């Protein structure tokens, strides 16, 4: 079941202290996504990578950055976390095929708490 | 951009009864419609999906129907069980949107024994 792995599962950080969340996948999928999910809300897409091409959603704050050093790994960097950034962060992957895309597979998520 | 509306926001059913959740979408180019189940504190898990070239798909107690003309799709759960209790999200995407999923707001389903 460990196809999309996120570490850590729980992260506590201080207000304004940079934090990095990580995602890795064993599926060899070329597309990776980062979502933010707050309590009782749907996941909200922050950005995605198509191979190494980075695509930012228009309403994603500049405070959020991402890196994808290789196919397997993707990182979410929050430069100066605010109290409003406390949420579950979900990584997802999919594969581009000739006939379209496969289903998105979600990782278990990292729950971020900002003190 | 795409807008997906989902109803109802909460649904309480007796064990053994059926549950129906409905979603509408705005972008006529949307061609992929997955449904995810999310239990408290866990990841969204795909339970069924349908593509625009199909009108209905069934997997055991779960079925999804799609009406492209009316731009709505529905999830049907029959013979509900307590373990069906969760939040269910519908979503829509187009082949031109990099697989970006536009989610509905979610439906909290509670199955009471």
Keywords:
heterodimer; A: 115 residues; mainly beta; seven-stranded mixed beta sheet; four-stranded antiparallel beta sheet; 13 strands; 0% helix; 54% strand; globular; B: 113 residues; six-stranded mixed beta sheet; five-stranded antiparallel beta sheet; 11 strands
Walk me through this protein's architecture.
The complex is a heterodimer of chains A (115) and B (113). Chain A is an all-beta fold and 115 residues long. Helices cover 0% and strands 54% of the residues of chain A. Chain A has no helices and 13 strands. In chain A, strands 2, 4, 5, 6, 9, 12 and 13 form a seven-stranded mixed β-sheet that branches. A four-stranded antiparallel β-sheet of chain A has the order 1-3-8-7, with no helix packed on it. A two-stranded antiparallel sheet of chain A has the order 10-11. In chain A, β4 (31-37) and β5 form a beta hairpin. Chain A starts with a strand and ends with a strand. With 113 residues, chain B is mainly β. Chain A binds chain B through residues 31, 33, 40-43, 45, 48, 50, 55, 90, 94, 96, 100-101, 103-109, 111, and chain B through 31-32, 34, 36, 41-46, 49, 51, 89, 93, 95, 98-101, 103-106.
């Amino acid at each position: 079941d460990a196809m999309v792995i996120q570490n850590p599962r729980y992260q506590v950080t201080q207000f304004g202290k940079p934090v990095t969340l990580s995602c890795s996948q064993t599926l060899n999928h070329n597309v990776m996504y980062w979502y933010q999910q707050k309590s009782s809300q749907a996941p909200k897409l922050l950005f995605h990578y198509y191979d190494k091409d980075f695509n930012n959603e228009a309403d994603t704050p500049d405070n959020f950055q991402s890196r994808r050093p290789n196919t397997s790994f993707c990182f979410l960097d929050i430069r100066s976390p605010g109290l409003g950034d406390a949420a579950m962060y979900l990584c997802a992957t999919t594969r581009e095929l000739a006939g379209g895309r496969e289903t998105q597979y979600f990782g278990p998520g990292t729950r971020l708490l900002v003190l | 951009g795409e807008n997906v509306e989902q109803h109802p926001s909460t649904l309480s059913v007796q064990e053994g009864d059926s549950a129906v959740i409905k979603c509408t979408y705005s972008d006529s180019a949307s061609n992929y419609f997955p449904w995810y189940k999310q239990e408290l504190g866990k990841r969204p898990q795909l339970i069924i999906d349908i593509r625009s070239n199909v009108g209905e798909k069934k997997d055991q107690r779960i079925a999804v129907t799609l009406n492209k003309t009316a731009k709505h799709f529905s999830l049907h759960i029959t013979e509900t069980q307590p373990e069906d209790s969760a939040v269910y999200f519908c979503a829509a995407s187009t082949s031109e949107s990099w697989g970006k999923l536009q989610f509905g707001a979610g439906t909290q389903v509670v199955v009471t024994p």
